[in-house]
Design goal:
44% of the residues lie in helices and 14% in strands. It is of the alpha/beta class. The protein is elongated, with a radius of gyration of 20 Å.
Amino acid sequence: MATQAQASDGKKLVEVSPELIEQWLKDGDTVLVDVREDFEHAEERIGGARHEPLSKFDADAIRQRYPGSRVVFHCRSGGRSAKAAEKFCTGDENVYHLTGGIEAWKSAGKPTLKPAKPPRLPVMRQVQLIAGSLVVLGVVLGYLVSPIFYGLSAFVGCGLMFAGATGWCGMALVLAKMPWNKASTTTGASCCAA
């Protein structure tokens, strides 16, 4: 199933179901591009998907790497892949993205690849540990030292509310850039490449 949305600038964003993408991949004329960040791609991925993180997205380079192929973008739930598809579109050609991302792929019963042993503590759990620690620290320092430290807890709480409302977490992006969270994937490389 594919549904099409026409933007006001003439670009056509086509939302594609997991079933249709699976068929296109079997036909061999489609490249599935994962625009999630390195740490997300390392934790779980769709077999055969190419990795082009949105934070390093270069539409021209992608066009050169996969000439003549139908390019379909995916992320975790569809938001980032829609942004990537919009960046990729140059004219009034159709641009494709997986409706609902890898989460919809899994819900449809399609297989994913995971490492035998997770490479490290997932970034979102690191965020939870740090945010929780900062809240406790703010409360303890606010009680023992000065009430101004309660502001630290309030700041972290506001950050978590913002992340929950928008899906954008600054702390996760910073943590993802830390050396211990660097995945050994290469931009453009297949997740299955040796």
